[in-house]
Amino acid sequence: MILSRLSRLDEDLTSRERLVLETLAITRVATAEHIAHVVFGDEERATAHRLAHRHLQRLTKFGLVRRFANASSGRKSGPAGYVHVLTSAGLTLTRHASGPGAGQRRAWRPSPPKLRHWLAICDLYVRLVIEARNGGPAVRQFLVEADARRTYWDSVGRRRSIQPDALVRIVAGGLELSWFVEIDLATESPAVLANKCRAYCAFELSGLEQERHGIFPGVLFIVPGDHRARRIARVIADQPPEARGLFRVTTEAAALTALRTSSS
């Protein structure tokens, strides 16, 4: 019964409604403003926002999208102060098995720091889409958190995993550039950051990524500002000399430039 209902809904969805769902499947969470930029970016600003709200309301009525108040710090209240996620039905329809809406928990709310982090990842995706629309590098792949997770075995046979905030592949000037992205909001200690660096190094040494995809992505830390960038640069400098070239740190303002610059 549920599958037949979803099948009927699938047939009734417009191309733009499908794109709204696909955007939420990629980014996990998004505001109406994010959807306006990604799906309706070819419209004037006021029209784009109106269409985004209208389509999100319709998809919410269908039970494919759920919204909740945006409690992340620094975000505005009011109509723009909501965050949207796919429900379990929405995840099924987009063929995604997991995500914030997977449990369809009506009372579920992420913590403000977690939500802020998710929205920062979404911000990056939106910036890449806008840049591509304006003639910049094409976004070939953007995987978030669990979808970007990599599992490997370390040098003594223990099962390990890394979970970047995003795996980004863009095509610039005919060259594909790949990055494991860490969105750093200045909340993690140098010790935690150093452990992340060691995990990426161990994963590179496993050879699994190179075997599957022919290349090991660079690791890009995106930070709020120069002070935090210097702190992470010191962590990178403490890594073994042969490993330091794997990592790069950049500010939010310079992130797009860093992503389209080869890590080699």
Question: Would you summarize the structure shown here?
Answer:
By secondary structure, the protein is of the alpha/beta class. The chain contains ten helices and nine strands. It starts with a helix and ends in a 5-residue tail after the last helix.
What do you see in this structure?
The protein is α/β, with parallel strands linked by helices and about 260 residues long. The protein folds into two domains: about 1-110, Orthogonal Bundle (Arc Repressor Mutant, subunit A), CATH 1.10.10.10; about 135-260, Trna Endonuclease, Chain: A, domain 1 (3-Layer(aba) Sandwich). About 45% of the residues lie in helices and about 20% in strands. The chain is built from ten helices and nine strands. It has helices at about 1-10, 15-25, 30-40, 45-60, 90-95, 110-135, 190-205, 210-215, 225-235, 255-260; strands at about 65-70, 80-85, 140-145, 150-155, 160, 165-170, 175-185, 220-225, 245-250. A five-stranded mixed β-sheet has the order 3-6-7-8-9, with helices on both faces. Strand 8, helix 9 (about 225-235) and strand 9 (about 245-250) form a beta-alpha-beta unit. Helix 2 (about 15-25) packs across helix 4 (about 45-60), helix 3 (about 30-40) crosses helix 4 and helix 7 (about 190-205) crosses helix 9. The model is unreliable at about 75-80 and about 100-105 (pLDDT under 50).
